[in-house]
Specification:
The structure is a single chain. α7 (about 180-210) crosses α10. With about 280 residues, the protein is mainly alpha-helical. The chain contains ten helices and no strands. It has helices spanning about 5-25, 45-70, 80-105, 110, 120-155, 165-175, 180-210, 215-230, 235-250, 255-280. The two termini are about 15 Å apart.
């Protein structure tokens, strides 16, 4: 595991101090989202399965078609890998958003809640997201360090082999193209939060909450959210993040709040990766 740089630690300490201050002073979220505003969407198991299969099948078809036009030797270069990753990200998130939109139009009675996403109260939604982002960050940071230390200990004992960093992380750190870097940032900080929050919170969590007790629904939603990222190094932190996103959505009944929270988290991750990598050069 790469040694954590001083400025990254300092940033983490500042965020932890701010978050702990919110907890210690019992500061509450903005009044707009202090309680449930509207009930969460209702859907049955068949609608859920059909929706998830539609996403999986459509993504598979779209990406299969797209990558038929990319020569195999194109990805042998660093620039080719970055371009392929950008294409993959945009096709994945774009297809998910398309399926969400199409589902809302084709099945308005069961899936009409997916679109449109109202722009009303956008500023209050962002303020609430920022509040929860700061408040829950100390927990995510502590869990990240504990989880990382546990994996490092297990690796030294020969119990596991530490995985390599995700390809998207390597590409973000090593690309020398400003355009491709901007596209990666857009995909991870805008498209991914919208697509993933629609699927994991507005659909999956809403279903889990109506079928299970609230704490169990949060835990399962967090685990599924973490598993889909297929990254052992961030498995436990992402479990907590997924649960917190579910809590924020349930508390506000506004998907914009969890989208903004998710976006802030991803932006923070990219910033810390850039900061640590820039100092290591």
């Amino acid at each position: 595991m790469q040694e954590t740089s001083g400025p990254v630690v300092l940033y983490a300490l500042i965020i932890m101090f701010l978050g702990i201050a919110l907890w210690a002073n019992s500061i509450k979220a903005p009044a707009k989202y202090s309680s449930h505003a509207t009930p969460l969407p209702k859907l049955n198991g068949f609608d859920l399965i059909l929706f998830l299969l539609s996403i999986y099948g459509t993504v598979f078809i779209v990406q299969s078609i797209i990558f038929q036009f990319i020569p195999p030797d194109f990805t042998s270069t660093d620039r080719g890998k970055v371009i392929s990753a950008v294409i993959s990200l945009f096709s994945l998130q774009g297809t998910i958003l398309f399926v969400c939109f199409a589902s809302s139009k084709l099945y308005p009675q069961s899936m009409g809640f997916l679109f449109p996403i109202s722009l009303k109260n956008t500023i209050p939604a962002f303020k609430t997201a920022f509040f929860y982002f700061i408040k829950f960050s100390p927990i995510v940071i502590v869990v990240s360090y504990i989880w990382g230390a546990a994996l490092l200990y297990a690796s030294k004992k020969g119990l596991i082999t530490l995985p390599e960093r995700q390809m998207i992380v390597e590409l973000f750190l090593n690309t020398d193209s400003t355009l491709l870097l901007c596209l990666l940032v857009i995909a991870t900080s805008i498209l991914a939060p919208i697509a993933e929050e629609l699927v994991f919170r507005k659909v999956l969590f809403s279903f889990l909450q109506q079928e299970l007790r609230f704490p169990l629904a949060l835990i399962i939603n967090g685990i599924l959210f973490s598993l889909i990222h297929q990254n052992l190094m961030s498995f436990l932190p992402l479990c907590f993040l997924g649960s917190f996103l579910g809590f924020v959505y349930a508390k506000s009944s506004d998907i914009k709040v969890s989208i903004f929270y998710h976006s802030l988290f991803n932006i923070q991750t990219l910033f810390l990766l850039w900061l640590g990598n820039d100092l290591m050069r």
